[in-house]
Amino acid sequence: MAEAILLRGTVIHDFPYPPERRKCPHRALVSLTPAGSCTHLCPMCYARAYPWSRDGPAFYANTPEKLAKELERVELCPPLYLSQVTDPLQPVREIRELTAQVVEVALRFGVPFHLITKSGEGVRWLLRRVPALRDYPHWWLAMTIEAPPEKQRVTSPGASPVEERLRAVEACAQAGIFVVVRTDPAIWGLVREEDELWILDHAQRAGARHIVSALGHFNRLSFSRLLEALRAFGLKKEAEEVRRTYRHGREAEEFFRPATICAPLPLRRQFHRFMREEAEARGMTYAACLEMGREWDSPGIPHCEAAPQGRLAKKTAAGRFELLADCYADCLRGCPEPRRPPCGRPELLRQYPFRFAALLPRPAPLWP
Questions:
Q1: pLDDT of residue 333
Q2: Taking a C-beta distance cutoff of 8 angstroms, is the pair 7, 66 a contact?
Q3: Cys-Cys link to 302, which of 104, 131, 328, 329 (CB 3.0-4.6 A)?
């Protein structure tokens, strides 16, 4: 049984990254569970390494109700992101049902959303639980496949088998749903070029249209957990190679704080050049997550998730939301009319993260 707890404060919130370290567009993050409350037990998980993370499954029981009330209040809504710190479709009955209820709220209001998961069976469950989702045009799926099947036992021991994830990708792609496959973190030393090519080949065959990847970054706790997991599976050579590779990546530069453990910049450049070329050769687009600038992404994609549904939405007089044309909620880099933003909120060009008040309706002027 998962523990039911109440979420305090607002549901809708943005990524906490400031402009100088930011690649992500504005998003409406929707927390379904406390940080770290995930049964997948991925050893490198950043959320499980937070000091405030909690063990054992738990969920915010009031999220659907609070989200509906906030969508009643706001006039603008960036795409909802379900859920940024744990898998929203992990095999816990209460958490999956909560996710389905939040999805139903999104459909009722007509807002765009996407979810990231490692649960292939969970995706198929959600499509059965909310059948209208198959025909809903404003959502997309990101399926993480961070390693081939024989190495998944290390990287995501509690998640769906990779083969099941690929079946879910195929089912969604056949239904016309935009599907992204993420291979991050590609833990270099455990995975190599041949592993990434295996993932790219299978993602392309299953119908994925876009790839996101990164070599990853860690704090001391998540990195030590990763090394311990490698050694526990008898992969001492791989553990040492991972330790050597990432130990030298602690430079203070544009994308990371000095204490962050990451791959060195030359290796990241080599990796993303390779991944983009191979993804594009297979007819997919590519983006690097967080650790590199947009010049490393495929040209022409509107944001790092590439989904055309990932646009800012504005409420109509009928109370539902419509997606704004050519506005992908990346006010920092991609506002179609910076002098007169189509959303009517010039402060969103400067607010990273945005304030909830920026999404609310403007009061009527006192004079014409």
A1: 86
A2: yes
A3: 328
> pLDDT per residue over 13-23, tens digit each?
999 988 887 88
Average pLDDT, the chain: 93
Give the CA dihedral 225, 227, 228, 231, nearest 10 degrees: 160
Domain that holds residue 345: 3-216+265-359
Q: Is residue 232 part of a domain?
A: no
The total number of structural domains in the chain stands at 1
CA-wise closest residue to 67 among 116, 25, 19, 101: 101
- The residue among 364 and 276 whose pLDDT is bigger is 276
List all residues 6 or more positions away from 220 whose beta carbon is below 8 Å from its beta carbon.
259, 261
Query: What does the alpha-carbon distance between residue 368 and residue 362 come to, in Å, rounded to a whole number?
Result: 15
Residue 258 lies in a domain: no
Look at the pTM and tell me if it is higher than 0.70: yes
Instruction: Examine the pLDDT at 251 and tell me if it is beyond 70.
Output: no
Q: Which two tokens stand for residue 87?
A: 């898998």
Kindly state the average pLDDT of the residues 188-206: 98
CATH number for the domain harbouring residue 297: 3.80.30.10
Asked whether residue 247 carries a pLDDT value surpassing 80, the answer given is no
In this structure, is residue 304 part of a structural domain?
yes
Tokens linked to 99: 């996710």
Question: Rounded distance, CA 141 to CA 120, Å?
Answer: 11
Q: How far apart are the first and last CA of the chain?
A: 58
Backbone torsions φ then ψ of 67, nearest 5 degrees: -65, -45
Name which of 345, 340, 349 is nearest 315 in CA terms.
345
By C-alpha distance, which of 290, 283, 209, 208 is closest to 15? 290
Report the distance separating Cα 186 and Cα 196, nearest Å.
8
**Joined tokens for residue 119:** 């649960």
- 29, 114, 58: which is closest to 359 by C-alpha? 29
364 lies in a domain?
no
- Give residue-wise pLDDT tens across range 59-81: 999 999 999 999 999 999 999 99
Are the CB atoms for 271 and 215 separated by under 8 Å?
Answer: yes
Residue 252: the pLDDT is: 45
Q: Residue 25: name the closest of 11, 34, 15, 38 by CA.
A: 15
